[in-house]
């Protein structure tokens, strides 16, 4: 990696355009930043000079999203690298680190179910899961329908009776010494009560993973051989059970379509697109069978064809997969990736994928036979997904743009409020006062930047004082700790995590009327923040209050701008209510233990975690309480006495 160069400007893209002769004609990675120093786009190029010069051509000839990006940017910088593989790796790392708003991110759709196997636990658990992937857990899928996955899992449990229960159920059954219903009917080997030890249970789980990963032929032959052997030895009950196991495995295999007969290990990728958007579909083929399918619809940032989309997809998708999948899975990067067109840097991508897999990966376009037929099937799926997306969201982008433009006009703002923040307060009669701050960018929620506050000084002074406290805490951080002029302005150099409150909003919305809006505006004036507009949104009549105005601004009920403000406010309310309920539940759960001498927060948490609830802890004996790690007998006696007294007071109150 070689020199890093930067050119800065303000709003006009030509003010920060580097002189053509100063840009190296070499491979590298470049970053565009906005006026606040935030990275808004990351790209790579074989020739930095050619690529960067293309961004400063006539704006009317640029792709709409590209034009928006270069006019939003205020600086551009680049890093020269030695090879295209190094450029691929650096581009992926920067996109992950900065999360630029104009870059496409191929994150997993959380609606797709997968089968998770918690190999990081002593007794691994099989369960259907939706969400972000974690280290130490092996995943199979994703699958189109959760019900089909649960059906398949239920079939296989008679052959592979592994644990499927949640941790609290596992601990409860171990405590009472009796297996659950699945253990009684033979669909769990009941490791909770010692019917199998950890090594035996893990072998069951390993066999399950082998079968689900596609290595089925050897297992089927082994079971068939055992069945014939049992019949020959006149063990007819065992032979019948093995026969039923074979039938269950065959039914499970029938649920997965066979597409190749040669044990192919491949991902098949296809696209459907127009000038502004593209739909991506991926079929995961393992052991010759389609094991999973997933898809995305993304906005195109630059004028790019199918080859460019393939380039973007492969570098981002497999980078994320390799980071979350365990090496033993062997499924993060397949042996073969089939694509509709090869990108320009196909050899560099294949080399990069091979380094992640640890063996050679082929990147190619299928021309004939079964693989070409499957590619056509994936393309049909992509086209269908694209049509459905267009029907569902035909007016969505237009509506968001209209809402932002309307807010700019109605509120008299210099620019459209591309970043909106909203503050809401939640409490019950002044107790457990909390606040939320939510962020919307381009009319969409940006949940990674949500923040929540426990109100301190102003908790007893009402909502107006609480609003002022939240605004002061949020903007004091920005004023006193401004974005540094470094290569990673959005990252805290001490923690390596994104900086809190690093960038100001265009519009700050507070839940309330004139007093709340005035309080927020007064705090901003006190801190010297002059480039943030403030409004209050009152719930009763959905009135918009501007600071120092005696009358509210009434937006039409059909206004897209009002609808956007309502969504922002409702999201802030939801987030505040959720935090308030969590605080109340925590306080109510531990309040009975607060008076126990010598019982700190760590041991209170250990007790609640061990017994699952205060009710179960109250019913436990002193011996059971003292069995919790870190809790001695004297402390257990104090806990039992405190809970007994609390229970008596509760009954007395009920009697009254």
From TrEMBL:
InterPro entries: GIY-YIG_endonuc, GIY-YIG_endonuc_sf, GIY-YIG_UvrC_Cho, Hlx-hairpin-Hlx_DNA-bd_motif, RuvA_2-like, UVR_dom, UVR_dom_sf, UvrABC_protein_C. This is UvrABC system protein C. The lineage of its organism: Bacteria, Bacillati, Actinomycetota, Actinomycetes, Pseudonocardiales. It is found in: Cytoplasm. The keyword Transcription does not apply. Keywords: Coiled coil, Cytoplasm, DNA damage, DNA excision, DNA repair, Excision nuclease, SOS response. Residues 25-104 form the GIY-YIG domain. Residues 1-21 are annotated as: Disordered. It comes from Kibdelosporangium banguiense. Residues 217-252 form the UVR domain. The gene is uvrC.
């Amino acid at each position: 990696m070689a020199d890093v160069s930067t050119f800065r400007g303000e709003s006009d893209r030509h003010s920060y355009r580097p002189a053509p002769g100063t840009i190296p004609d070499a491979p590298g990675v470049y970053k565009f930043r906005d006026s606040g120093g935030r990275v808004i786009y990351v790209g790579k190029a074989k020739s930095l000079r050619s690529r960067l010069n293309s961004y400063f051509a006539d704006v009317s000839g640029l792709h709409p999203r590209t034009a928006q990006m270069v006019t939003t940017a205020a600086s551009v910088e680049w890093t020269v690298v030695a090879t295209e593989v190094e450029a691929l790796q650096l581009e992926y790392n920067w996109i992950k680190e900065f999360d630029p708003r104009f870059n496409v991110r191929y994150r997993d759709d959380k609606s797709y179910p997968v089968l998770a196997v918690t190999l990081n636990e002593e007794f691994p658990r099989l369960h259907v899961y939706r969400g972000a992937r974690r280290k130490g857990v092996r995943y199979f899928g994703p699958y189109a329908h959760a019900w089909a996955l649960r059906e398949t899992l239920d079939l296989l449990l008679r052959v592979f009776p592994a644990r499927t229960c949640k941790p609290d159920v596992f601990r409860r059954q171990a405590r009472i010494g009796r297996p659950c219903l699945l253990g009684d009917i033979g669909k769990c080997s009941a490791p909770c009560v010692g019917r199998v030890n950890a090594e035996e249970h893990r072998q069951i789980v390993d066999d399950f993973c082998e079968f689900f990963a596609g290595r089925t032929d050897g297992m089927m032959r082994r079971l068939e051989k055992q069945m014939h052997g049992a019949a020959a030895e006149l063990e007819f009950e065992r032979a019948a059970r093995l026969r039923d196991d074979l039938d269950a495995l065959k039914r499970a295999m029938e649920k997965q379509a066979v597409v190749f007969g040669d044990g192919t290990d491949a991902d098949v990728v296809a696209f459907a697109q127009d000038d502004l958007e593209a739909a991506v579909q991926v079929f995961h083929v393992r052991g010759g069978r389609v094991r999973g399918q997933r898809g995305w619809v993304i906005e195109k940032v630059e004028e790019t064809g199918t080859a460019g989309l393939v380039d973007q997809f492969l570098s981002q998708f497999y980078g994320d997969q390799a980071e979350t999948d365990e090496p033993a899975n062997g499924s993060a990067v397949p042996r073969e990736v089939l694509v509709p067109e090869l990108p320009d840097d196909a050899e560099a991508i294949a080399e990069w994928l091979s380094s992640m897999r640890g063996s050679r990966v082929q990147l190619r376009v299928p021309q004939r036979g079964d693989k070409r037929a499957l590619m056509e099937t994936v393309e049909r799926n992509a086209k269908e997904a694209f049509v459905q997306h267009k029907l569902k969201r035909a007016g969505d982008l237009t509506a968001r743009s209209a809402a932002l433009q309307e807010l700019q006009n109605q509120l008299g703002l210099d620019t459209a409020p591309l970043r909106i923040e909203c503050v809401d307060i939640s409490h019950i009669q002044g107790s457990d006062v909390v606040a939320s701050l939510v962020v919307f960018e381009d009319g969409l929620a940006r949940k990674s930047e949500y923040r929540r506050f426990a109100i301190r000084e102003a908790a007893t002074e009402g909502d107006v004082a609480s609003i002022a406290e939240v605004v002061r805490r949020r903007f004091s951080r920005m004023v006193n700790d401004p974005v540094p002029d470094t290569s990673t302005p959005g990252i805290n150099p001490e923690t390596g995590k994104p900086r809190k409150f690093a960038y100001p909003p265009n519009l700050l919305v507070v839940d309330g009327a004139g007093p709340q809006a005035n309080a927020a505006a007064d705090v901003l004036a006190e801190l010297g923040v002059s480039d943030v507009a403030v409004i209050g949104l009152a719930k009763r009549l959905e009135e918009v209050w501007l600071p120092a105005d005696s009358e509210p601004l009434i937006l039409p009920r059909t206004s897209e701008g009002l609808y956007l403000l309502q969504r922002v406010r409702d999201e802030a309310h939801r987030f505040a209510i959720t935090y308030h309920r969590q605080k109340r539940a925590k306080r109510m759960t531990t309040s009975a233990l607060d008076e126990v001498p010598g019982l700190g927060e760590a041991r209170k948490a250990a007790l609640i975690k061990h017994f699952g609830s205060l009710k179960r802890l109250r019913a436990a004996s002193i011996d059971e309480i003292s069995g919790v790690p870190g809790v001695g007998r004297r402390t257990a006696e104090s806990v039992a006495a405190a809970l007994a007294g609390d229970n008596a007071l509760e009954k007395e109150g009920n009697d009254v």
